[in-house]
Specification:
- The chain has 366 residues and is an alpha/beta fold.
- It has one domain: Aldolase class I (TIM Barrel), CATH 3.20.20.70.
- The chain contains 13 helices and ten strands.
- Strands 1, 2, 3, 4, 5, 6, 7, 8, 9 and 10 form a ten-stranded parallel beta sheet that branches.
- Helix 4 runs parallel beside helix 5.
- The protein binds S-adenosylmethionine, 6-(5-methyl-2-OXO-imidazolidin-4-yl)-hexanoic acid and iron/sulfur cluster (SF4).
- The site of 6-(5-methyl-2-OXO-imidazolidin-4-yl)-hexanoic acid has 17 residues, from strand 2 and strand 7.
- It comes from [Candida] jaroonii.
Length: 366
């Protein structure tokens, strides 16, 4: 099938499919950019209110001292980045930050810990569960945590606390992954995602662009995500933030590998076409993008951002700056616990939003 027919096929589907092949994804990814972005925007409009952008704020609740060897990360104890390891924050500190995030219009609060996994962290899990349930009950915000690998029992505990989503990135393609991380496998990442999914927690998973990956890697990365049993509820696209002292920075300099903005745009547009219902979040490195680059990412189908004082250890675009930008473009914050087209208040939506249609049988592909 040609790129054009595959795009038409993607647009004709009434429900997401998880049978995309690498060659189909490649044909879509390589379609002439203007047409690719245009059709991604059409897909976006038939699954989401095109005016809405989800505002999410991050907090590092346990910074630094991580035992993993992720080549890009400021928080790995193996990387000489000058970051000091800290203890788990207290409930009071976290609530203060969550309150500020809510006052500034964020509806999802995401807490990150620099841990490999939750093995032997019973008291940590208890404290984090308390943070999740207090944010839920006192502030009514969606919650997301990213704590490294977790098993089914730990996922169950977080679900009982009222956790909305768990972030666990596959980061890159299965093929490129061993070049980036050696202390845990790609399949271990998938296992945690499965554990989270099985307990009925929304899965937030995506990756980083700019790790010296090839176009084939970006296609393979999208292939893994779009072939998960269920597409991620939320799909973060991070642009590598080059941190001094991390091995990836030296490697990229040596290989003279630079990520073109077009590749980010193609990845987002392709993700939107093949995973129509996922919320695509412009994550780390957004502060390095020019306004018009961010605008193009929204055109290609992104509909969420991290906004606030900080990411985990790197810079984030601030609330006021983001509010001004979104309002200039006629975009509004997404309300809490919203996202799917079935939840959209049609009265409040853009007149260009296409209301949900009855689900049809799947169209077969030739
Ligand atoms: N330790 C947990 C884990 O690895 O799942 C949670 C925290 S970890 C910092 C969350 C994600 O941040 C990583 O999976 C990676 O995708 C992203 N990240 C970390 N450092 C980054 C960097 N320098 N540039 C872009 N994204 C980064
Ligand atoms: C994700 O994909 N990006 C966020 C969130 N999930 C936890 C984290 C980005 C961290 C960027 C590097 C830093 O700030 O240290
Ligand atoms: Fe640790 Fe997560 Fe950083 Fe890897 S990305 S070193 S697991 S904090």
């Amino acid at each position: 099938m040609s790129g054009a027919s595959l795009i038409q096929y993607a647009l004709s589907l009434k429900a997401p499919i998880n049978t995309w092949t690498k060659s189909q994804i490649k044909a879509i990814y390589n379609y002439p950019l203007m047409d690719l972005v245009f059709h991604a925007q059409l897909q976006h409009r038939s699954h989401h209110n095109p005016r809405e952008v989800q505002l999410c704020t991050l907090l590092s609740i346990k910074t630094g001292g991580c035992s993993e060897d992720c080549k890009y990360c400021a928080q790995s104890s193996r990387n000489d980045t000058g970051l000091k390891a800290e203890k788990l924050l207290t409930l009071d500190t976290v609530m203060e930050k969550a309150r500020i995030a809510k006052q500034n219009g964020s509806t999802r609060f995401c807490m990150g810990a620099a841990w490999r996994d939750m093995h032997g962290r019973k008291s940590g899990l208890k404290k984090i569960s308390e943070m999740v349930s207090t944010i839920n009950t006192e502030l009514g915000m969606e919650t997301c945590v990213t704590l490294g690998m977790i098993n089914s029992e730990q996922a169950k505990t977080l679900k009982q606390a009222g956790l909305t989503a768990y972030n666990h990135n596959i980061d890159t393609s299965k093929e490129h992954y061993p070049n980036i991380i050696s202390t845990r496998s790609f399949d271990e990442r998938l296992q945690t995602i499965q554990n989270v999914e099985n307990e009925g927690i929304s899965v937030c998973t995506g990756g980083i662009l700019g790790l010296g990956e090839t176009e084939e890697d970006r296609i393979s990365f999208l292939h893994t995500l779009s072939n998960l049993d269920k597409h991620p509820e939320s799909l973060p696209i991070n642009r590598l933030v080059p941190i001094k002292g991390t091995p990836i920075v030296e490697e990229l300099e040596k290989n003279q590998k630079k990520l073109e903005f077009d590749s980010i745009l193609r990845t987002i547009a392709t993700a939107r076409l093949i995973m129509p219902e996922s919320i695509i979040r412009l994550a780390a490195g957004r502060y390095t993008m020019k306004d018009y680059e961010q605008f193009l990412c929204f055109m290609a189908g992104s509909n969420a951002i991290f906004t606030g004082e900080k990411m985990l250890t790197t810079m984030c675009n601030g609330w006021d700056e983001d509010k001004a930008l979104l309002s200039k473009w006629g975009l509004v914050p997404m309300e809490s616990f919203r996202g799917k087209k079935e939840d959209i208040d049609v009265e409040k939506a853009s007149p260009f939003f296409q209301p949900p249609q009855k689900k049809h049988d799947m169209v077969s592909i030739v």
